[in-house]
Each structure stands twice: as structure tokens, then as C-alpha cells.
Write a structure and sequence with these properties.
Arc Repressor Mutant, subunit A; single chain; Rna Polymerase Sigma Factor, Chain: A; 77% helix; mainly alpha; 171 residues
Length: 171
């Protein structure tokens, strides 16, 4: 049974940070092999989580809890970066369109930039032929979220396209 004496206090947190923050970064860096910005972000998330969870973490186990949380966050951040990099590589297919096709594609890409980042990724994944289930797994969300985000993106693109279509007809 834990007592109030076993739990972290704000003073304990300050002492732990002073004595352990560099060591935590070293452990994450060497354990995961992540780039420095990922290590910094992961450690920051772990410290923030510890501050929020301090009433539930034992004083004796706080360092281990921090290491486990920071490593999990670093791995998660690296997976996200890998997904985004692989998507960017997939989109680097050389094309040789005509001038009209090129102008149309540029306007479409410009319209996509006006969507949220998540909607942009889902539109590109759909264009690559992924199913809703595959996209949900890739984005770590539900099928319902994928459907909802794609529908919002479609509506936004229709509004943008109708605005540019009216401008083209007027010109």
C-alpha cells in the first residue's frame, strides 16, 4: 500500500530534474538512436507527463518511469517521421505532363495546401490507393475519423474549386 510519503512531491521533482535530466537524454539517445531533436522532444514529454502524474508515481520508481516514457515517446516520434518520409518518397514519381495538365495539377496541389496537415496526408494516402482501414492503421486513428476527415477535405476542395471555376469562367 502506497502512502503519501512514497509519492513524489514538487521538491522531489525539482531535485530529480536537476540530477537526472542529462542522464535521461543520454539514455534515450543511446537506447533509441534517435536524432537530437527527437530526444529533446521525447524527454520534454516525459518530464511533462511526470509532472502531471506525480501523484501516482512512486518516488523510488520515478527515474524508471521517466526512462520508459521518454523511450516510448521517442519511438513514437520516429515512427511518425518514418511514415511522413515514406509518403514523401512515394510522391517523388517523375511526371512529364503537358502545359495544360501541369497548370491543372499545380492548382490542385495548391488547393491541397489549404487543407489541414492531417487532411492532406489522408488525401495523399487515398490517392496512393490505400483503403480506409489501411489509412486508419497508418494514421493511428479510427475508420470513422478517416471518413470524416476525407469528407471535410472533399467539401473544402469543392468550395475552393467552385471559386476558381467561377473565376476561370469570368476571365
Amino acid at each position: 500500500m502506497r502512502t503519501a510519503q512514497d509519492l513524489l512531491t514538487p521538491t522531489d521533482l525539482i531535485r530529480l530534474y536537476g540530477s537526472f535530466h542529462r542522464r535521461l537524454a543520454h539514455i534515450v539517445r543511446s537506447g533509441v538512436g534517435a536524432p537530437e531533436p527527437v530526444v529533446e522532444d521525447a524527454c520534454q514529454v516525459a518530464w511533462t507527463a511526470l509532472i502531471c502524474q506525480s501523484t501516482r508515481v512512486d518516488r523510488e520508481r520515478a527515474a524508471g518511469w521517466l526512462v520508459r516514457t521518454a523511450i516510448r515517446e521517442a519511438l513514437s516520434l520516429m515512427r511518425i517521421a518514418d511514415r511522413e518520409d515514406s509518403l514523401a518518397r512515394e510522391l517523388e514519381v517523375p511526371i512529364d505532363p503537358g502545359p495544360e495538365e501541369l497548370a491543372w495539377r499545380r492548382s490542385q496541389v495548391h488547393s491541397l495546401r489549404l487543407l489541414s496537415v492531417r487532411q492532406q496526408r489522408l488525401v495523399w494516402l487515398r490517392a496512393l490507393g490505400l483503403s480506409y482501414e489501411e489509412m486508419a492503421s497508418y494514421e493511428r486513428c479510427t475508420n470513422r475519423t478517416v471518413r470524416r476527415q476525407l469528407e471535410r477535405a472533399r467539401r473544402r476542395l469543392r468550395v475552393l474549386d467552385s471559386g476558381t471555376g467561377a473565376q476561370r469562367r469570368a476571365a
